[in-house]
Write the structure tokens for this entry.
Amino acid sequence: MKTMRLFPLELRRLLQSRLTWLIIALTVLSPVAGLVLYKPATSTTMLSMYLANPAIAGGVAGAILFGLLAIFELDRARRSRVDILTDAVVSPLTTALTRLLALLTAAVLTVALTLLVWLPISAWLIGSVFTGANYVLAYLLLMGLALPLGILAAAAAYQFTRRADLSIVLFIVFCALSLTVWADDWQLCWLNPCVWALSDDFSNFRVFRSVAWMRLTWLAALTGVWTVSYLCIRQYGKGMFGSLARSVRRIYRPAVALVLLACSGTAYAAQPFIDQSNPDLTVMSFYEIPYAEGVTFLSRSAQVFPDTSAGTVTGRASYRFQNTSGQEQSISFGINPGYTISNVQANSTDVPFTVSDYQEYNEALLEVTIPAEEEVELTMEYSGFPQESMPTMQGGKELSSEYLCLENSALSPRVMNVMPGEAGYPAEIEITLPASMIAIPFSSSEAEVISENADGTRTWRYEANSAGGILYAGDYICEQIEAGGMTIEFYYGRKHQSVMEEAGAVDAVKAVVDYCTEHYGTLSFGTGETLKLIQSRVAGGGYAVGGASLLDEADFTIANLRDTNKGAVPGETFIHELVHQWWGLGNMFDTVDSTSPWSAEGLTVYTTYRIVKELYGEDYAQEHYVDQWQQAVDDYYLNFYVRHPEYLEMLPENEQLAISNSLSRVRQYSEMPLKILKAEQLVGGEEAMDQILHDLFNRELDPMYPYLTYQEFLDACHLTEEDLNLG
């Protein structure tokens, strides 16, 4: 009761301090650092650049500032040498608790003020993809919860040591660990959460859930540590251990500390987000499992029920096998490590099964024993929260009413050691989704609605032929475009509609597909009649299969569409990204030395220039492409670090990386297109170059090294590297 009476007085005293208001002001301004200095979210989505980075930077700065304020306030009486008098009036335990509550309240007020100040700024910077839910969740989780963690850590350090200088050192070391040693461990980086990207067009609940889990785990841990330090507060002239012995007489105090620490440890160990897959990506032991003798695959069906509010999946899968071996066989399946398997039956009879602890490539091994009968129908149920393998790239398993992606064993258990039957691996998948979502199989298959359900959901069905399979679903808009002799089904997020319209996306798709098909050939992953272009949630890249290709939303953000290296206006940047379907996906490029200009970007920029030249004329293309390439290259050759690379090597590593990346961008986006343009002139003009690129695009690939190399390009042109020097 005394604490509650003293709390308003302590809070008023704290808010009357100029230092407190200085700390509050600096914390409110600290998100600016995320716009110019500290940018942990590396994606180019608008929410990554203008929401995640400012919020994380604000959390880092705010936690450190409030931690230092906590030490200053706790040391006030000792610094003024009145601690003996104050301890005689009020118990030091009561004082510590009251000051902690006052500091936490000041932190809450600071976060509220930050939300108000940055609301119009964030809305203006982010533009049409801004939403209040993302804004509030980002600032509360990425910034807001960091402040009490900083206060608890600093207060605990002071209460253990009773020295301001030593407490500051310990607190700064604790912060530095999060920013350096623990930076890539999503559970340990308490100060700077591992958020590499936030999606503009789809939901971010998966990322926010993992950050909340980490924050609450640390909140329990640091509250427990603070409670232990609270028991060590010096009283009655005793030292730390004497005070501890006296404080633990009230058994509920140490019990609270133990419960908090136990809850934190349990939460750390039982986190549901990341699996325990073998980090050695060269190991592929699941592919070495021998095929079941005499067993062939007949068919598969699955009924999948995602819970878009909880982010979980439940389902029932059925498999039909032919077993001609005359004996029991062990069938191996890959399942997502977050799933629980139950009710496994063969021909309506329970059969034994095991799930291994070993995990590989986001799969655990499920082994089921089927009977010796000739035809076996194996059924099983599965449910759980799908886990991911890459803790620093979280978000791929986003599952909400706006977006989901279920890949292979996350869609249904994947058969691994059964030979295909005469029909291959035929499958029939049914999935029940909110009515606002469209189901899009990542293949040539088409999903159709088979029922409208009373609970506001729809059940979709599609057929496929694979042991696994990928399904996308979301709040998509579908544009059907006739181009290149086929129908393009262009799916993009509803939130991105205004951006796509501004960029002239439909016209760009038609222009690119018509041009590239005519000049280079049809895409190998098209069916010849249809091709799905699907905008995915930010994933770090695209890929393609027969009948479908993925477009990463990060390639079509407002910021990326304004990148003048890729085009003069948003529509031309959109053209650039679509050309990557031919140069980048249709023909792959190996990762090369940063000093080399050869990459997918060179041919993509050159092709974009040719398309723009055809659309808008030679003068426009010369002004907005060739002249700009030449200016960038001229500036590049005058660059001090290009002329004196030995000085670049003397700079700090992070400065070297920033400068090297900038120079590499000029080589790829400006120097290489100029070299290709020069090659065009040397080989006899545009038609000759088109024939060379057509032959390269349609060349027979070496499956061991399917990449298009610079030497192959030079050989096709009958040129050498020296022939293309620009000097």
About this structure: The chain has a mean pLDDT of 84. The first strand starts at residue 295 and ends at 307. The longest helix spans residues 92-126.
